């Protein structure tokens, strides 16, 4: 755990770079410091590893005041990743990653094994990349090496100062997703600095919004921050479209789902039409005996007169003796329960669909409609109106 206890840093001319910051980052948590330029984000980060010393207050690392710890020893317990990687240009990739293990006195075999492990962990084949120099890598590859180097001594804390800020949007998005996957495996305590609220929302377990003068405006989860900005500054900083942004941090819940009629593939169409008519719906989902989604049957095929749709499997006009399987259409608009409302909304838009099927792995659970999606978003902000 890291705790900022009334931590302050004063400029020489008397103004505050950081103004008595109170903040707790729990073990295994990813805390994002976000705000405009000059709000004290990087200064706050550098005080954690004593690259900058505070003017007032204390920073506690697992209840130990870091001011009492030798700075060199402290930094070896914390990984540090900066923008544009900051790799040693004259060292090969393997030697860059081996920096901290060598400083810690690891033997060659242990160091070599750790380098191999870390390069694989960040998605770089050691056989291809270990002997390359930084200038032979792309920007994204350099950042991967930077993360690997920071993890060299298996530190409990990672400090990351706009590590993806210099990358193009595609590479940046890919590395954000990969870093989230990495964090899910490693559970490091991370302080991550960015000026980009989208990046903060994507990555943070909790977000600290700072304004000029190093004043903390709000420290909350992304969902709470977007749903209930504490001050006009926070509301303005997260943007008027925060309802849309909130989609990305609001999970799908089973209670959000609707359940249209479910038919087995072997159900005769005459029985299917009767079941759908009795339900008041106009279409149905097709699910096999194991609960796997097969597809759906559209309204035309379920009309009482047999409809006019042609079978995808047989090419025949529907009749009284065929089965649901003959008319089950493949379904492209689908998401899994662990995805967000944003992912569901994106599927609806991409496939021009009026609803999206929700699965638990390959097990069908129900469908999410635009109305249900909006209701879920309203529920997540305590029933308040949400502009999306």
Question: Can you offer a commentary on this structure?
Answer:
There is one protein chain. This protein is of the alpha/beta class. It has two domains: 2-239, Rossmann fold (3-Layer(aba) Sandwich); 254-380, CBS-domain (Roll), CATH 3.10.580. Helices cover 35% and strands 22% of the residues. The chain is built from 16 helices and 16 strands. It has helices at residues 41-48, 71-76, 93-97, 99-103, 108-121, 126-129, 139-150, 169-186, 197-203, 222-227, 232-238, 242-247, 269-279, 299-302, 341-350, 370-380; strands at residues 2-10, 16-25, 30-34, 56-61, 64-65, 78-82, 157-161, 189-194, 206-211, 215-220, 262-263, 284-287, 293-297, 334-336, 356-360, 363-368. A six-stranded mixed β-sheet has the order 6-7-8-3-9-10, sandwiched between helices. Strands 2-1-4-5 form a four-stranded antiparallel β-sheet, with helices on one face. Strands 11-12-13 form a three-stranded mixed β-sheet. Helix 5 (108-121) crosses helix 7 (139-150) and helix 15 (341-350) runs antiparallel to helix 16 (370-380). The longest helix has 18 residues, at 169-186. The radius of gyration is 27 Å and the shape is elongated. The two termini are 37 Å apart.
In short:
The chain is of the alpha/beta class and 388 residues long. It has 16 helices and 16 strands. It has helices at residues 41-48, 71-76, 93-97, 99-103, 108-121, 126-129, 139-150, 169-186, 197-203, 222-227, 232-238, 242-247, 269-279, 299-302, 341-350, 370-380, and strands spanning 2-10, 16-25, 30-34, 56-61, 64-65, 78-82, 157-161, 189-194, 206-211, 215-220, 262-263, 284-287, 293-297, 334-336, 356-360, 363-368.
């Amino acid at each position: 755990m890291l705790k900022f206890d009334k931590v302050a840093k004063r400029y020489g001319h008397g103004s505050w770079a950081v103004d008595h910051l109170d903040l707790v980052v729990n073990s295994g948590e990813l805390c994002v410091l976000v705000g405009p330029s000059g709000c004290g984000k990087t200064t706050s980060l550098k005080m954690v590893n004593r690259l900058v010393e505070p003017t007032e207050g204390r920073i506690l690392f697992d209840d130990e005041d870091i001011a009492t710890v030798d700075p060199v020893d402290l930094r070896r317990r914390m990984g540090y990743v900066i923008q544009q990687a900051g790799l040693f240009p004259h060292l090969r990739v393997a030697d860059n990653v081996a920096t901290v293990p060598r400083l810690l006195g690891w033997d060659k075999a242990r160091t070599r094994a750790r380098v191999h492990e870390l390069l694989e962990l960040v998605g770089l084949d050691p056989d291809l990349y270990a002997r390359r120099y930084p200038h032979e890598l792309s920007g994204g590859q350099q950042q991967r090496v930077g993360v690997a180097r920071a993890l060299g001594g298996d530190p409990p804390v990672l400090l990351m100062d706009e590590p993806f800020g210099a990358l193009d949007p595609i590479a940046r998005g890919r590395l954000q997703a990969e870093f989230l996957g990495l964090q899910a495996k490693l559970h490091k305590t991370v302080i991550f600095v960015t000026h980009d609220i989208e990046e903060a929302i994507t990555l943070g377990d909790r977000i600290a919004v700072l304004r000029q003068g190093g004043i903390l405006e709000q420290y909350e989860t992304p969902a709470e921050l977007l749903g209930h900005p504490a001050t006009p500054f926070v509301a303005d900083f997260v943007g008027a479209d925060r309802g849309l942004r909130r989609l990305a941090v609001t999970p799908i819940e089973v209670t959000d789902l609707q359940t249209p009629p479910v038919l087995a593939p072997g159900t005769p169409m005459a029985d299917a039409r009767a079941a759908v008519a009795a339900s008041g719906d106009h279409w149905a989902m097709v699910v096999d005996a194991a609960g796997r989604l097969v597809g759906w049957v559209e309204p035309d095929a379920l009309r009482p007169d047999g409809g006019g749709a042609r079978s995808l499997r047989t090419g025949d006009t529907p009749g009284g003796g065929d089965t649901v399987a003959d008319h089950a259409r493949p379904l492209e608009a689908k998401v899994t329960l662990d995805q967000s409302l944003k992912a569901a909304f994106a599927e609806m838009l991409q496939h021009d669909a009026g609803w999206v099927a929700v699965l638990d792995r390959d097990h069908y659970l129900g469908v999410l409609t635009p109305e249900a999606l909006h209701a879920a978003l309203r529920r997540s902000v305590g029933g308040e109106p949400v502009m999306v």
